From TrEMBL:
InterPro entries: 6-hairpin_glycosidase_sf (IPR008928), 6hp_glycosidase-like_sf (IPR012341), Glyco_hydro_37 (IPR001661), MGH1-like_GH (IPR054491), YgjK_N (IPR048450). This is Alpha-glucosidase. Residues 50-149 form the Glucosidase YgjK N-terminal domain. Residues 299-621 form the Mannosylglycerate hydrolase MGH1-like glycoside hydrolase domain. GO terms for biological process: trehalose catabolic process. The gene is ygjK. Residues 1-20 form the signal peptide. The keyword Cell cycle does not apply. Gene3D superfamilies: 1.50.10.10, putative glycoside hydrolase family protein from bacillus halodurans. It comes from Segatella buccae.
Amino acid sequence: MKKTFLIVCACLLTMLGGRAESKSAGGGFTRDDYAGIIDISLTPTGQENQIGCFTDQGAWMGFTLPGRDKPAGGFCGPFSINGRWWFAKSALSLMAGGKPLPHERADYVPGKIGLCLKADDGCVEEQLLFVDSRTALLHVTNTGRRQLTFSALEPHRALTVRKEGNHLVLGGLPGETLMLTFPPSAELRVAGNNYTATLPPGLGEADIVVSMLLPGDRQEAQRCYANSLLGNYRACENDNLARWNGYLNKVLRPDMPTDYNRVAVKAVTTLVSNWRCLRGGLLHDGIVPSHAVGYFVGCWAWDCWRFSAAMASFFPELAKDNIRVMFDYQQSDGMVIDCIYVDPRENNARDSKPPLACWAVDRVFEATGDTAFVREMYPKLLHYYRWWYRHRDHNANGICEFGSADGTLEAAAWESGMDNAIRFDGAKMLHNGGAAWSIDQESVDLNAYLAYEYTLLGKFAALLGMAFDEPDLRGKVADYFFDDAEGYFFDRRLADGRFVREPGCEGYLPFWTRIATRAQWLKARRLLEDPRKFATYIPFPTIAADNPKYDANGYWRGPIWLDQTYYAIEAFRNYGEPRKADGYTRRVFDRLQGLSGDAPIYENYDTFTGRPLQASHFSWSAAHLLLLYERYGKK
């Protein structure tokens, strides 16, 4: 009977957790060379303290290292990434004389954190890693003779604690339950909303399992699984090391400068830290823009396409699910909605996002050769492509506009992805019929994206042996949006065809998608290489830097967004100037503040200083840093 129960537990746990890939390193790079990759030090002083944390395997919890001179007696947290609360300042704190033990060293390498706590008769070493999407494993090494007693430091006031064998169940918070699993020899006591867990004297090493249970999880199965991990830290650490070294050896290049390799490792770490497992309304695993900012803990369409494009080379299975998670909500008319959350009531279906889904699928295909995935996605991609021409082509001329489903300009601006772009100043909405509205201008970037989607849909159709007979509008797009007088690509007003002459990043797209002619490139290059406009300290801002409306802190009205910088740099490579492309890449890698140090990667950056702006731990920027790294030195 006991054997049967253990088998059932093991089977249940294969369904409980997320992926736990275990791969051989496959090369000479190791994650241990990248200690201190990102500064995640924070001893929270209240529930409002929220920054990026250590999280892995798609988990919905994370930990921070205690801040300098702000001891916590252990790792801080866990922090609930969805609920945005701390279960405690430290759920596993070691105390001495009523005070948390201070630390003399704190380390973060990709996939693992470490801590050295100072005690009177030696030190206590702690290491923590994630085993799967529900489970973290803490390994404790006691070099002294001190008997170790753990408790929660400043537990959440709503927390409840109950003892179940060698497990402590911490509840009272909506939708999430924390479980701490100690060695069976530990003495556990509960007092109010706290506990003490005392390990036997002379115990040199011990494992403690931290589990976060989500709605629908079976607590009995998780208890069984947690017990099976006790005493098995080394095996889990070896799997963790192999998985992370596997990521890095698929990305890093021996011909790259050390600092650039560090940037690539930081980008990989950022993307994996923003991986969230399926939960609630998220029907597949996905990548969120930033786990450090509450409103970014969801999935956005064109964000997901970018993340999958970057992850395809080192984590293709997650890249696939990150595409599926958005198509789970594809509407019957073909629309892919803007963003989705754990709570579907928060989803935004007022608008879509720029079409880059075929690019993401193609990146996965080129990395894996997986024709089954292409076959799965092709009809959905084609349906989405056709949606644009049915719902966003006001005058049926084969040229599309951004728009919305509710008739608001706000949602239409969101659909462009460039929420407050200068080119939309003064734009108005036009009704196309039903729940379809367009801005009164045709956008060059949208139609360049659609031209690229056309190319890739044709590629997929040929691969699958299917007919593809959509009209080819690629040449028309390049001619239609190019202003010969200014030598640049611009949006056009629907009413009279006038160009919206606000030179901006949307003009990079015909060159990235390769639909522009050589003659158009030679004209536009004069603007792109003008240091007053686009060849700035950090190159290729969202609007020409000499525009009177330029705003250094203006979101899409000035700062550097690295996707747009990537498009412009690739334009030089696409039109036969790889050395210039590399030179602009060096400006990015060498000049963005904190990039090769321990600062997180940010949402956008100041054009003239490289100063970080907006949200930290940002997947969007990390994805394009990886793409820039991948392309550096290539023709």
